[in-house]
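Page 37, continued from 36.
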């Protein structure tokens, strides 16, 4: 991406104080994982849009055009969040997996939001499995709905564009083994963004210029010699 990124040779090493926990509950048919955390980072180093005297995001003007300008800086920062995962298997051939992530971050030096902090995310996976379907073995079919919320904890003047809207993506995958003579092959098909949804990610600098990639299909075949 065409942009300016200005370094700072005066940056000091970061120091981090962190508290984390791992919580788990399980039964024969479900498992729940929770990972809450709290981090204080002294002299946190990050790259953010460069601000002018009015506190607004600044662009660099050259003979080739105007480009976003970023600069490294250091602040005292506080991060808090939780990662969660719930796995449910009510029957042998069905597995449901729910994942979620929430993070909150604050620039304590300026008493402001930090930029480029991941928005809230949640996903739901469903996987169907079978030991044999015709000539295929170890078959699995699945799909995922992945929701990413809009990042609302931002300073709109301190960025080149407002955060993108929330989006919902649908993915799918299939895996199986098959034999060809004495050889066994493992094959998989993965389809990302099945509905070819147009969206932009808050964490990508490309969002200032373009959408994220549309539908993609990946086919893999593995053979162990």
């Amino acid at each position: 991406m065409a942009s300016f990124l200005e370094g700072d040779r005066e940056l000091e090493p970061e120091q981090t104080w962190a508290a984390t926990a791992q919580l788990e509950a399980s039964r024969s048919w479900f498992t729940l994982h929770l990972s809450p955390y709290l981090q204080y980072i002294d002299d946190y180093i990050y790259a953010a849009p460069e601000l002018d005297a009015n506190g607004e995001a600044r662009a660099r003007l050259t003979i080739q055009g105007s480009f976003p300008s970023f600069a490294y800086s250091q602040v005292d920062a506080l991060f808090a969040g939780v990662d969660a995962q719930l796995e449910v298997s009510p029957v042998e051939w069905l597995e449901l997996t729910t994942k979620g992530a929430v993070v909150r971050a604050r620039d304590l030096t300026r008493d402001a939001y930090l930029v480029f902090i991941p928005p809230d995310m949640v996903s739901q996976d469903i996987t169907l499995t079978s030991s044999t379907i015709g000539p295929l073995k170890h078959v699995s079919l699945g799909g995922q709905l992945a929701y990413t919320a809009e990042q609302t904890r931002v300073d709109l003047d301190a960025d080149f564009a407002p955060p993108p809207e929330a989006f919902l993506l649908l993915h799918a995958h299939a895996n199986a083994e098959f034999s060809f003579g004495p050889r066994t092959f493992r094959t998989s098909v993965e389809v990302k963004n099945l509905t070819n949804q147009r969206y932009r990610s808050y964490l990508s600098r490309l969002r200032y210029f373009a959408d994220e990639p549309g539908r993609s299909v990946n086919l893999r075949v593995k053979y162990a010699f």
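The radius of gyration is 23 Å. Flag for discussion at group meeting. The chain is about 0% helix and 60% strand.
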